[in-house]
């Protein structure tokens, strides 16, 4: 178990997002793995709200005052997890050739008439949380809305920590 925790710790050093964590957790051979991962993540954070699910790089769904909110590792709170956290971000839109050429060599980037790059930053720590490459006017993408209760019941066979 101790060895296992060390391995997981190494794996999590880059703080894996949920999409990568899920297949690891999904290994039914070790039902303690999810708890070990949560424990490792929680130890790294400077705040105490219990993690319900890791959501995205830097972001967690946590339990606070009976609510499920999205919280950044820096402590910034995005509010209800069912509302797209991106709407609270600082956003930079690269929709000109000049702005796109800061990232790509000349003529290697997208045509801003057809595609723009949207960069989403945490308002608390200014970490770059996500980038969308979408046609201008395209709605903000909602990456992932987890079925928290279903996940806990079907995968872990128990209730989430805020419903215990
Ligand atoms: Zn942050």
Task: Considering the chains and any ligands shown, give keywords for the structure.
2 domains; binds zinc ion; 164 residues; elongated; four-stranded antiparallel beta sheet; alpha+beta; single chain; 27% helix
What is the fold's blueprint, element by element?
Layout: H1 2-11, H2 18-25, H3 33-44, E1 51-56, E2 59-64, E3 67-72, E4 77-80, E5 90-94, H4 97-101, E6 116-121, E7 128-134, H5 148-156
The chain binds zinc ion.
**Strand runs, count:** 7
List the domain count as a whole number. 2
Helix content: 25-40%
Sheet with most strands: strand arrangement: 1-2-3-4
Report the C-alpha radius of gyration, rounded. 18 Å
List segments where confidence is low: pLDDT < 50 over at least 5 consecutive residues.
Answer: none
- By DSSP (H or I, 4+ residues per run), the number of helices equals 5
The best one-word shape is elongated
Order of helices and strands: HHHEEEEEHEEH
Q: Give the terminus-to-terminus CA distance.
A: 25 Å
Q: What is the structural class?
A: alpha+beta
Estimated share of beta-strand residues: 15-25%
Q: Give the biggest beta sheet.
A: 4 strands, antiparallel
The bound ligands are:
zinc ion
What is the residue-averaged pLDDT?
87
Structure description:
This protein has two domains: 2-83, no CATH class; 86-134, no CATH class. The radius of gyration is 18 Å and the shape is elongated. A hairpin with a 2-residue loop joins β2 (59-64) and β3 (67-72). The two termini are 25 Å apart. By secondary structure, the chain is of the alpha+beta class. The strands form two sheets. A four-stranded antiparallel beta sheet has the order 1-2-3-4. A three-stranded antiparallel beta sheet has the order 5-6-7. The longest helix has 12 residues, at 33-44. The chain is built from five helices and seven strands, in the order αααβββββαββα. 27% of the residues lie in helices and 24% in strands. The model has no long low-confidence stretch (mean pLDDT 87). The structure holds zinc ion. Zinc ion (ZN) binds at residues 58, 72, 74, 76, 122, 124-125, 127.
């Amino acid at each position: 178990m101790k060895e296992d925790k060390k391995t997981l710790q190494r794996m999590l050093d880059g703080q894996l997002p949920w999409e990568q964590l899920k297949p690891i957790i999904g290994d039914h051979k070790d039902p303690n793995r999810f708890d070990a991962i949560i424990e490792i993540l929680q130890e790294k954070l400077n705040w105490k709200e219990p993690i319900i699910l890791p959501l995205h790089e830097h972001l967690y769904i946590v339990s606070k005052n009976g609510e499920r909110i999205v919280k950044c590792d820096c402590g910034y709170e995005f509010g209800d997890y069912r509302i797209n956290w991106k709407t609270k971000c600082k956003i930079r839109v690269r929709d000109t050739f000049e702005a796109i050429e800061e990232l790509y060599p000349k003529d290697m980037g997208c045509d801003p008439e057809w595609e723009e790059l949207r960069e989403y930053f945490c308002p608390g720590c200014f970490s770059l949380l996500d980038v969308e490459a979408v046609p201008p006017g395209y709605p903000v993408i909602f990456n992932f809305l987890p079925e928290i209760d279903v996940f806990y019941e079907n995968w872990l066979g128990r209730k989430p920590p805020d419903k215990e």
